[in-house]
Amino acid sequence: MPISFDTIRKHPFLSRSFRVILGAVFIFAGVEKIFAPADFAQAIRNYMILPLSVTNLVAIVLPWLELFCGFFLLAGLFIRASALLITILNLVFILALLSVMVRGLDISCGCFGSVTPVDWLKIAENVVLLSMSLHLLFSAP
Amino acid sequence: MDTWHRMNIKIKNILTQSVLIIFLAGITGFIFNALSHNGIPVIYSPPGISDGGEIDAEQARTLYLGSNALFIDTRYPEEFTHSHIPGAVNVPQKWSLDQVMDFFESIPKDRLLVIYCSSTECNNSRRLAGFLIQLEYTHVMVFVDGLEVWRAKNYPVEIHDEKAQSTE
Known about the structure:
The complex is a heterodimer.
Chain A: H1 5-10, H2 12-34, H3 37-47, H4 52-75, H5 79-103, H6 120-138
Helix pairs in contact in A: 2-4, 2-6, 3-4, 4-5, 5-6
Chain B: H1 2-35, E1 54-55, H2 57-66, E2 70-73, H3 77-82, E3 83-84, E4 89-90, H4 97-104, E5 113-116, H5 124-134, E6 140-143, H6 146-152, E7 158-159
Parallel strand pairs in B: 1-6, 2-4, 2-5, 5-6
Antiparallel strand pairs in B: 3-7
């Protein structure tokens, strides 16, 4: 059987790889923030996008959202729903990062708890993750 | 028709599951936060401004005389040059976030800061205060009555007299 783009696109290996990668990344990202909520909340405030009063709320819920979606992807449960949520999260992160770069804010990303800068590399990483989650959402068998 | 109907149901399922996952994350997050040693308050309220961050003229004067508080004037540079509280620095409202951050880079986060403007009609001082609190300054105070009341009480001001060329 000739190999077409469709064959590659729909190949279960692609979906499984993306599920594992995304799953691991988001579980790790979530866990890091769950154990340092005050730091994450301050990192959110540094972006100066959200109103101050809701920043703690986001810091409390978002890491668990990352954790659960990552877990479900690894476990193969609610794949499309998790992929949808991760797609939305990635879009939000990319927009937030772009917003910071456009305004020239010199802040730390807050992505994995430790100090990482906000730069094009960070945005590129998120674009790669976004394309994986889009694949899981639309093309996965 | 049938395919569309089935796809519609699939989409609804995905959306329902997504909402449920969000609820799951929310509930778990709140419970964990409540039980955790590192828990944080659900509604964030910045320190300083909400609990006694606004001060009146007498309090400002006390700080002026008896502390190393840095007085920050948020009016236009022309107004500042004309007269200001002695020792104050000018951080005009028109500055960009970048300029403000550059200016405050050398100022330690626990420095006493008293921000003022012309009068209660001017909101620049509160806005700058809000920004500085986000930058984690812990002792930010807003002297809301402003220079107008300060001068009315005959508290000291530094005036730039254009006519006075120093000949001493």
